[in-house]
Amino acid sequence: MGSNGQEHANGFHDGFHASGTAGKVITCKAAVVWGPEEPFVMEEVQVEPPQKMEVRLKILFTSICHTDLSAWKGLNEMQRVYPRILGHEAAGVVESVGEGVEDLKEGDHVVPIFNGECGECPHCRSHMTNLCARFRVDPFKSVMAGDGQPRFSVLDPATGKRRPVYHFLNTSTFAEFTVLDSACVVKINPAAPLQKMCLFSCGISTGVGAAWNCANVKEGSTVAIFGLGAVGLAVAEGARLRGASQIIGVDINSEKFGKGREMGITKFINPNDCDKPAHEVIREMTKGGADYSFECAGNLDVFREAFMSTHDGWGLTVILGIHPTPRLLPLHPMELFDGRRIVASVFGDFKGKSQLSDFVDKYMNGETKINLDGFITHEMPFTEINQAFQLLSEGKSLRCLLHL
Prior knowledge:
The protein is 25% helix and 23% strand. It is an alpha/beta fold and 404 residues long. The protein has two domains: 5-201 and 371-403, Quinone Oxidoreductase, Chain A, domain 1 (Alpha-Beta Complex), CATH 3.90.180.10; 207-346, 3-Layer(aba) Sandwich (Rossmann fold), CATH 3.40.50.720. It comes from Elaeis guineensis var. tenera. GO terms for molecular function: alcohol dehydrogenase (NAD+) activity; S-(hydroxymethyl)glutathione dehydrogenase [NAD(P)+] activity; zinc ion binding.
């Protein structure tokens, strides 16, 4: 595969019509997980044609998010549906569309989104939320919305029969071809480099959007970010672009601080190196507390530190981390009477279908100067997905870009 995602996409499109795959079952490679923490297996899977209001994509690039890592580990037993194709951060080209799909066509450059937008339900028509009544993010959903069946299957060597392979987060991008509900596919500028655009599927949109759309970070404000993975650093990018005067990064891995500086973080705290709780350190540094804090670690103890680090009277804590355990929030209700507020953000409060393409356009025309290159720390072939997961698990990568 060439290094230019545009050429790759066009190359696929140029030979696409002659392939005649529309309406037919496609056999392709997919990274299938068969159980919690079991190595991904490159399987020959069959991918059915898209049905009504569905789209089949050729995935060209996919990257790995901590949500994929949590699902692979099986941290929530209700998510343990196998065999399954994980992955939700990707970019590719439309191979074919099902009946009724009018906003997408063969050859369109697209990114899949785990938090869909049908455009018709009361939620989608409301400016108060970016959740969709039917296609919102659902980690427990493993089949298509139309008929309740998966579109993948694999040959079971034990029986000689085909068995279903289940979907993940409305997307399943760890495959050369995948089928999505059209509500979960966003057409983007064809000039945009697809190898970078996959970051808009999750990490960049989630973090930057949390700073812009959810918190509405103000110029000159102070921000504390707990957890400096890709989402936390995307929050830093969003805060930097909004003109925050002080951006404090908190992480127990000090090796992340160098990358954090590239993303605009001005001060760092490793709680393991402190003789007092991180929230007390932050209150001293900011003369009372941060205006905004962002919890990006998915840890309730970290969440409490984030909440307590904000300024009384107006501090806002935004929850972005995935919390798989059934533990409840470690707060006394009276602590909320100090004026501190808490909110959670899904996909950075972006409405995917109606707002994400504009976000991409602003990046392309230079209006939004996000350091996308800084987030892609590794690139490797799709077949090396197990190594990529190991890098993320060890905290050695932000985003590993897999070339399909």
